[in-house]
Protein backbone atom coordinates (compact mmCIF):
# COMPACT_ATOMS: atom_id res chain seq x y z
CA UNK A 1 0.00 0.00 0.00
CA UNK A 2 2.73 2.47 0.93
CA UNK A 3 4.81 1.46 -2.07
CA UNK A 4 2.41 3.29 -4.38
CA UNK A 5 2.91 6.72 -2.80
CA UNK A 6 4.71 8.77 -5.40
CA UNK A 7 5.69 12.40 -5.65
CA UNK A 8 2.08 13.61 -6.00
CA UNK A 9 1.09 11.71 -2.84
CA UNK A 10 3.97 13.13 -0.85
CA UNK A 11 3.14 16.65 -2.04
CA UNK A 12 -0.50 16.16 -1.05
CA UNK A 13 0.53 15.01 2.42
CA UNK A 14 2.85 18.01 2.77
CA UNK A 15 0.07 20.43 1.79
CA UNK A 16 -2.37 18.85 4.27
CA UNK A 17 0.20 19.05 7.07
CA UNK A 18 0.94 22.67 6.19
CA UNK A 19 -2.75 23.56 6.25
CA UNK A 20 -3.39 21.76 9.54
CA UNK A 21 -0.41 23.04 11.50
CA UNK A 22 0.50 26.29 9.78
CA UNK A 23 3.90 27.53 8.70
CA UNK A 24 4.92 28.87 12.13
CA UNK A 25 4.24 25.66 14.01
CA UNK A 26 6.08 23.54 11.44
CA UNK A 27 9.03 25.95 11.47
CA UNK A 28 9.34 25.81 15.25
CA UNK A 29 8.97 22.03 15.17
CA UNK A 30 11.79 21.68 12.64
CA UNK A 31 13.94 23.97 14.79
CA UNK A 32 13.39 21.67 17.76
CA UNK A 33 14.24 18.63 15.63
CA UNK A 34 17.48 20.33 14.56
CA UNK A 35 18.40 21.07 18.18
CA UNK A 36 17.70 17.47 19.10
CA UNK A 37 19.93 16.14 16.33
CA UNK A 38 22.72 18.53 17.34
CA UNK A 39 22.42 17.46 20.98
CA UNK A 40 22.47 13.78 19.96
CA UNK A 41 25.64 14.24 17.91
CA UNK A 42 27.28 16.13 20.79
CA UNK A 43 26.41 13.29 23.17
CA UNK A 44 27.84 10.70 20.79
CA UNK A 45 31.10 12.66 20.47
CA UNK A 46 31.38 13.06 24.25
CA UNK A 47 30.77 9.33 24.72
CA UNK A 48 33.46 8.42 22.20
CA UNK A 49 35.89 10.80 23.92
CA UNK A 50 35.10 9.28 27.31
CA UNK A 51 35.68 5.77 25.96
CA UNK A 52 39.01 6.83 24.44
CA UNK A 53 40.09 8.41 27.75
CA UNK A 54 39.13 5.26 29.66
CA UNK A 55 41.07 3.15 27.16
CA UNK A 56 44.17 5.31 27.66
CA UNK A 57 43.89 4.97 31.44
CA UNK A 58 43.55 1.18 31.23
CA UNK A 59 46.51 0.92 28.85
CA UNK A 60 48.68 3.05 31.15
CA UNK A 61 47.71 0.85 34.12
CA UNK A 62 48.60 -2.28 32.15
CA UNK A 63 52.00 -0.82 31.24
CA UNK A 64 52.61 0.20 34.86
CA UNK A 65 51.66 -3.28 36.10
CA UNK A 66 53.93 -4.98 33.60
CA UNK A 67 56.83 -2.71 34.63
CA UNK A 68 56.41 -3.60 38.31
CA UNK A 69 56.17 -7.30 37.42
CA UNK A 70 59.47 -7.13 35.51
CA UNK A 71 61.16 -5.42 38.49
CA UNK A 72 60.08 -8.22 40.84
CA UNK A 73 61.42 -10.98 38.59
Automatic annotation (TrEMBL):
Gene3D superfamilies in the cross-refs: 1.20.5.3310
Pfam families to which the protein is assigned, alphabetical: TatA_B_E
GO cellular component terms given for this protein: TAT protein transport complex
Gene Ontology biological-process annotations: protein transport by the Tat complex
Keyword Mitochondrion: no
Location(s), subcellular: Cell membrane
Segments traversing the membrane: 6-22
Quaternary state and interactors: The Tat system comprises two distinct complexes: a TatABC complex, containing multiple copies of TatA, TatB and TatC subunits, and a separate TatA complex, containing only TatA subunits. Substrates initially bind to the TatABC complex, which probably triggers association of the separate TatA complex to form the active translocon.
Stored InterPro entries: TatA/B/E, TatA/E
Alphabetized NCBIfam families for the sequence: tatAE
Function of the protein: Part of the twin-arginine translocation (Tat) system that transports large folded proteins containing a characteristic twin-arginine motif in their signal peptide across membranes. TatA could form the protein-conducting channel of the Tat system.
UniProt protein name: Sec-independent protein translocase protein TatA
Keyword Cell membrane: yes
Superkingdom: Bacteria
GO molecular function terms noted in the UniProt entry: protein transmembrane transporter activity
Keywords for this protein: Cell membrane, Membrane, Protein transport, Translocation, Transmembrane, Transmembrane helix, Transport
Bilayer topology annotation: Single-pass membrane protein
Membership in a protein family: Belongs to the TatA/E family.
Lineage per the UniProt record: Bacteria, Pseudomonadati, Pseudomonadota, Alphaproteobacteria, Rhodobacterales
Amino acid sequence: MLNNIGLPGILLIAVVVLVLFGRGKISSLMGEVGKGITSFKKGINEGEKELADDKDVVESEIVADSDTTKDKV
